[in-house]
Amino acid sequence: MTVRLRPVASALSLLLVLAGVHGAAAQPLGTFRWQQQPYCNVVTVNVVQSGSIYQLDGFDDQCGASSFRASVSGIAFLNPNGTVGMGLTIVGAPGGAPLHLDSTLNLSTLNGTWRDSMGATGSWVLTPGAAVPGGVRPLSGAMPRFTRISYTGTSTTATTTSDFVKVRDLGTFTKAANSTLLRLTLQTHVRMSVAGVSCAYQLRIDDINATGETNFAGSEGIVNSSTRSPVSIVEVFGGVASGSRIVSLWVRGSGSSTCEDNGGNFTRTVLVEELPAFGATVAAPDPSWVTAPGANDRPPAEWQ
Q: Where are the alpha helices (DSSP H) in the chain?
């Protein structure tokens, strides 16, 4: 049987101790719940004072939708600026995928912000009652993460200007973290209706290319043959926010021509790889998610 301390009294006891009103060493201070907003995950920990640090042990409810809870352990401490620091390790279940999380709390409210090892961030909200609805936190897992998008059908697109036009949406995937890079690879076969001119094919995410623009990205697949020819397109994207994203195929022609993808209606696959951005520092994304890639967003040499 679990005995819960009253939320107000429990929070007050923690505030008094963190503020410097100390009792005996290694004293239990109570059970506390924080919601990792905007997600529905609620972390419940027992807090025990041990000298100038506070030991935290408990679980992540994983939004209650799973048969499993995730193990949580860590410490809290008083920062020199008067805020409360907290560091947690969450071991996902089932599977054991680790996630490291740190938060900074206001001493008077015990609310604050969190940041995790996948580059995500949000509000860390003391939650003695019911949690606010939200989505489930993405599984941490090890990087890289892979998603295969399959599509069928033959697409023919008439191009009469030098602007890129949309051929079709190829499918969707879910990006786990804000700070990671994405590498998209498509292998298909294409052709054009008029020999001597060319068709340039491009992959985009949410209708934006890898440079955050709508023109050439520098890694298009180009064909200038009226017979079906194999082509590979590889695009690397930085600055894409976590969440559901749409991959689409675009094309532009030189002169007046018709560009064809996947003649004969085979099954084609786009491989989406989510990769760690080494040394990258990415702020919370703009709602449009598009940012021009800077030095930290560019892939390591072995990925180019």
A: 7-18
How far is it, in rounded angstroms, from Cα 123 to Cα 7?
A: 19
Q: Do 54 and 32 form a contact (C-beta atoms < 8 A)?
A: no
- pLDDT above 90 covers a percentage of the chain that reads 34
Two structure tokens written together for 56: 């935290």
| Burial class of residue 296, CB neighbours in 10 A (0-12, 13-18, 19+) | middle
Sign of the torsion angle spanned by Cα atoms 47, 102, 287, 41 = negative
Residue with tokens 């897992």: 141
246 vs 118 pLDDT, higher one:
246
The residue type at 126: L
Tokens representing residue 199 in the block: 């068709």
Distance between CA atoms of 56 and 63, rounded to whole angstroms? 20
| pLDDT reported for residue 16 | 47
Residue with tokens 């993405």: 138
Q: What is the pLDDT of residues 145-182, one digit of tens each?
A: 889 999 988 888 876 567 888 999 999 998 877 778 89
Which domains are delineated in the chain? 7-126 (2.40.128), 145-303 (2.60.120.1340)
Asked whether 206 and 242 are in contact (CB, 8 A), the reply is no
Residue 4 has pLDDT above 50, yes or no: no
pLDDT digit string, tens, across residues 211-222? 887 777 677 778
Q: How many CA atoms lie within 13 A of 62 on its CB side?
A: 17
Phi then psi for residue 205, to 5 deg, are: -115, 125
Q: Which of 12-26, 215-229, 242-256 has the lowest mean pLDDT?
A: 12-26
First to last CA, the chain: 57
